[in-house]
Amino acid sequence: MMYEFLEEEIKNIYQDDNKKLRTQTVMYGKLEHRWHTYLYPGLTTEEIKEFESRVGNTFPSAYREFLSFYNGCYLFDLLRMGGKELESYKGLTIEEQVRSTVDVEDIQEIHLRKRTPKEHFIFADSLVKNTYYVMDKDEKVLEVDYKTKKVTESYDTLKDFIMQIIQEGKDNIANEIYFEFR
């Protein structure tokens, strides 16, 4: 299962409305003075191994594969998927710093609780939906309500989950539903 479809879908939605930063991050969909979606450049196999070693965890294979295409992403204000944080922010503009990958460990720290099952790998969240996302031992993606900690949705694969977010993003754009962040 490959993840090239993500960039293709995003390009189809936003057409030429994008900007590439020196960090190779591509921002899409400038709406009301801010960008709606970002794709971060993928990691090499070596970088992924070093990242797993630093985190002290072997990542689910679907997440590891995703990282080889994109080091996390931010989709339609609906999803923030963690990756490996930049080694250094030295010499970067404020825009490049602010639009850099959120470390998956930071997302885990925010959402991890004593009752979180050990086999649940937390990799993403949604401020809009007040949810976070885990992969279970079978690599199914589970949507977990932040307050109740109950699973509200389940997806068979990471690709199915991403396709659902893309569809929701398309629907929101078509219906001109945008979120305000202050």
Q: How many angstroms separate the termini?
A: 37 Å
Question: Which strand order spans the largest sheet, edge to edge or round the barrel?
Answer: 1-2-3-4-5-6-7-8-9
Helices, by number, come to 6
What Rg is obtained from the alpha carbons, in whole angstroms?
Answer: 16 Å
Sheet with most strands: 9 strands, antiparallel
The count of β-strands is 9
Strand fraction: 25-35%
Mean pLDDT: 93
C-alpha geometry? globular
- The low-confidence runs, each spanning 5 or more residues with pLDDT under 50, are none
Output the helix-strand order. HEEEHHEEHHEEEEH
Structural class: alpha+beta
Provide the helix percentage. 25-40%
